[in-house]
Records
---
Amino acid sequence: MLAILQESLLNAPIVHRGAYHYFIHPISDGVPQLEPALLDEVTDHILGMVTKDFDKILAIEAMGIPLATALSMKTGIPFTIIRKRPYELEGEIKLSQETGYSKGELYINDVREGDRVLIVDDVISTGGTLVALMNALEGIGATVTDNIVIIERGDGVSRLRDMGIDVKTLVRIDVTEKGVSIEAVHE
Ligand SMILES: O=P(O)(O)OC[C@H]1O[C@H](OP(=O)(O)OP(=O)(O)O)[C@H](O)[C@@H]1O
Ligand code: HPA
């Protein structure tokens, strides 16, 4: 299962971002090109994993966007993007994002107390992005019905689990300078 995802991961090129071995993949980078069949495979799989009673899909710029778009079209449920730029609208929440290779700010708009949100993202690595996001959503008073990430590497999932936060992923990989290996597929 998840045959297209697995095959494409095994072919992913690796580049160095400082000491971080960064894999390049259609789901996490839009490079090489993202085939509709892969997007269809992963988003159908997500819909088989989640609790259905969410009223908003929440994705992080940039590579949460194609996932949220496909999920929204399959479910008829709207999506909001957590952006890397501010709009300075009333109620905008700013959070600091730190990954294994970058630091920046993210801005949440149009998420309100009582919203039931499905979070979707392409990759979890250190977990820094999701920790910051979950803290901000708790402050807003939104309920996260599921937290879904396609590709898991590193210790981010166990870091969140230690904080009592469940993250579901489709595949766990290891990345070395030689390439990607698949450690687990979560059917
Ligand atoms: O678990 P972490 O170490 O926090 O890493 C995961 C984050 O890294 C990537 O974001 P990036 O800022 O590279 O965004 P992109 O989608 O624009 O490539 C990815 O989309 C996650 O949001
Ligand atoms: O190695 C990576 N590749 C693509 N996106 C990512 N987001 C965190 N780590 C990675």
Note: The chain has a mean pLDDT of 97.
---
Amino acid sequence: MNLVNCKGLSKSYGDKKALNQVDITLHAGSPIALVGPNGAGKTTLFSLLCGYIAPSAGEVNLLGHKPGSPELLGRIASLPQDATLDPNLDVLTQLSFFATLQGYSDKNAKAEAMRVLNLVDLASSAKQKPSSLSHGMAKRVAIAQALMGTPELVLLDEPTAGLDPANAKKIRELVKSLSTNTTFIISSHNLDELEKLCDQVLYLEHGQLRQSVSMNESQHDDYITLTMQHCEPSALIEAVLNLADISSIEERQSNQFLIKHNSAEVYGIEIALLNLFKQRNWQYKALLKGRTLEEKLFS
Ligand SMILES: Nc1ncnc2c1ncn2[C@@H]1O[C@H](COP(=O)(O)OP(=O)(O)OP(=O)(O)O)[C@@H](O)[C@H]1O
């Protein structure tokens, strides 16, 4: 059964078309990214998937059910972009309350609340009120709430926005570690982060699904992305073009080059590049098989 199925999904606010005829089929597995510029329709799509709003046209199904169906209780969860905590209740009390709403007994609700707080490394803050939490801690509590009951599908709207790099890394590691049992759909503007985490990337623009990119394809395509410490671009380009099986090389950003080759044996190209750097005493920073997500989406 498909995890998510959208067919001709559209949503208008007045005469503003926020989503326009979107078809999406998603399967359970590795995290899936949802990207797109401000106003592209990402939050609208999440809200439709969660059943917070109804479509203007088209269909949406999750695990074979309409959003908001009782059959989905405890099986899907979401972290809204603007999730807020109740300022009057300590963290444990409010998470326990949400667990009872999911059907847990009082005793089990507390245990489940502590389990998810442990997952986000905040068990020691269980008795704190939201006002005494930092922004990053409050975000982790909201993520803990989404993880209650080990749902099959979790929608995270900008889960690491505003977090410092260490906290953002913790969230990424958590998502990775839970991905065996839960499929995450993550909306974010941080392409580097999504590249590390996700196998599939959906690109929305002006309410339409423009691209669906598989990150695994990078293992099989004919590109290498080369980042140098610093170099003389023209000398590098000339030297690389003289190597066997190179079709083209372009400087795409400062010190970053996209190499297209026509060899089935990418290791041969990599070894030739490393030999060249050794001969010329050039320092490289990174050799990436394939193209970056940014290149795939915007070139
Ligand atoms: N409640 C609403 N009433 C009217 N227009 C809305 C409403 N919610 C969203 N829109 C409009 O729908 C479009 C899509 O908005 P949405 O919030 O889904 O985009 P987004 O991709 O999540 O943007 P961002 O990256 O800025 O969060 C925008 O043009 C927005 O102004």
Note: The chain is about 35% helix and 30% strand.
